[in-house]
Design a protein that fits this description.
The structure is a single chain. This protein is an alpha+beta fold and 351 residues long. It has helices at 7-23, 28-39, 44-52, 57-98, 115-129, 143-146, 185-193, 234-249, 302-307, 324-332, 345-348, and strands spanning 133-134, 140-142, 177-179, 198-207, 219-229, 255-262, 265-274, 291-300, 316-323. The protein contains eleven helices and nine strands. Strand 6 and strand 7 form a beta hairpin. Helix 1 (7-23) runs parallel beside helix 4 (57-98). The longest helix has 42 residues, at 57-98. It is rod-shaped. Bound molecules: adenosine-5'-[phenylalaninyl-phosphate].
Length: 351
């Protein structure tokens, strides 16, 4: 009988039980099975206590104390593990409650295409349909490309510090560096790098030293157009630009060409459309003229062709430049250009 109980046997059972308790990571049921296996009515420790009854009193005392302390230690471990598992379970439940799948979904607000971008894309699309390609130029430009080669004289007021934002950088062989005041210098870049036939649009951002008001920004967008080939005539310009305004403002829109002046075109014109607000009757928007300006245009000045080394007797061309914000204002009847840059989602959602 004595063989049935020993210090090493108790120690071995202790270690065995301990490692089984430690190995449980999730299930409380598993822990319950361990409790029954070791401490239940027919459990392994219960059996050891049964053996105690059959050994001499002096040994009973020694093994009894040892068994009691081991059982107390293991029961504590078991309780600790049970607590640990239930804390883990509550934590998991809380984490799950963040993902409450029965709650109604949150409305996810997706962005919208900005009205300016819409108009920009529409404008580009019209010219792509007409077979134009797209060219881009830098926003930091040489003074020569922005002015001189475009036949803008040295004493022209546009060159003034009051109108142009010059950069505080060393002067280059092509003059001072500045933030381009229009997209027309891209005409020069295209003409210097390609031989006619040329049929390009050149969209981009431009900068002017302007005071902000309802129709003026100091940083806005233009789309330039340039067609150069043999035999290009004013009627080509009129045809292309009439097609353009009808595509943007509708087939019924009335338009007209007015004589104007740009140093880089001759003759120079401005194109107007019939006022969309008063339908030509005369109102505050059109300053009672019945028409509003949409773009500047003209036949490329022979001096510009000469400046880029093209024979002006052989080639002719037309060019135009429009303000994207102003077209968007007309199209959507917006009376203050600054609204485009306020980033008010209520305004953007209107389009
Ligand atoms: C020019 O910039 C010429 N380069 C256009 C051109 C190109 C003419 C090729 C002939 C041939 P203008 O300064 O008028 O022209 O500007 C063109 C357009 O830009 C205007 O019709 C207007 O729509 C827009 N614009 C001009 N200034 C501003 C401003 N401060 N804020 C917003 N839009 C402007």
């Amino acid at each position: 009988m004595k063989d049935k109980i020993s210090k090493s046997g108790i120690e071995q059972l202790r270690k065995e039980c301990l490692s089984e308790i430690e190995s449980v990571t999730t299930s409380q049921e598993e822990l319950e099975k361990i409790r029954i296996k070791y401490f239940g009515r027919k459990g392994k420790f219960k059996q050891m206590f049964e053996v105690l009854k059959e050994i001499p009193l002096n040994e009973k005392k020694i093994y009894g104390e040892l068994l009691n302390s081991v059982v107390a230690e293991l029961k504590l471990k078991l309780e600790g593990k049970l607590k640990e598992l239930s804390v883990k379970k509550v934590k998991e439940k809380n984490e799950l409650s963040i993902l409450e799948l029965t709650l109604p979904g949150m409305k996810f607000s997706i962005g919208r295409v900005h009205p300016l971008q819409k108009v920009y894309d529409e404008i580009i699309d019209v010219f792509l349909r007409l077979g134009f390609d797209i060219k881009y130029g830098p926003e930091i430009e040489f003074e020569d490309y922005n002015f001189t080669m475009l036949n803008i004289p040295y004493d022209h007021p546009a060159r003034d510090m009051q109108d142009t934002l010059y950069l505080d950088l060393p002067v280059t062989k092509n003059g001072k560096l500045l933030l381009r005041t229009h997209t027309s210098p891209v005409q020069i870049r295209v003409l210097l790098s390609e031989k006619p036939p040329i049929k390009s649009i050149m969209p981009g951002r431009v900068y002017r030293h302007e005071n902000l008001d309802a129709t003026h920004l100091f940083n806005f967008h233009q789309v330039e157009g340039l067609v150069v080939d043999k035999g290009i005539r004013l009627s080509d310009l009129k045809g292309v630009l009439t097609y353009f305004v009808k595509s943007i403002f509708g087939q019924d829109i009335k338009c007209r060409f007015r004589q104007s002046y740009f140093p880089f075109t001759e003759p120079s014109l401005e194109m107007d459309i019939c006022c969309l607000v008063c339908k030509g009757e005369g109102c505050g928007v059109c300053k009672n003229s019945g028409y509003v300006e949409v773009l500047g245009c003209g036949m490329v000045h022979p001096q510009v062709l000469y400046n880029v080394g093209l024979g002006y007797e052989e080639y002719t061309g037309f060019a135009f430049g429009l303000g994207v914000e102003r077209i968007a204002m007309l199209k959507y009847r917006i009376d203050d250009i600054r609204l485009f840059y306020e980033n008010d989602i209520r305004f953007i959602n209107m389009f």
